[in-house]
Amino acid sequence: MGAYRLLKLPGNMTEEERNLSKAVMSYWATFAWNG
């Protein structure tokens, strides 16, 4: 996901936290796109 790479996320995030972050961003992007 392009937007994910642009964000300056802390380097000490766990894999679970990164996956959650991606899921939340994907949810909001889909919501914004589809309403």
From TrEMBL:
Protein name: Carboxylesterase type B domain-containing protein
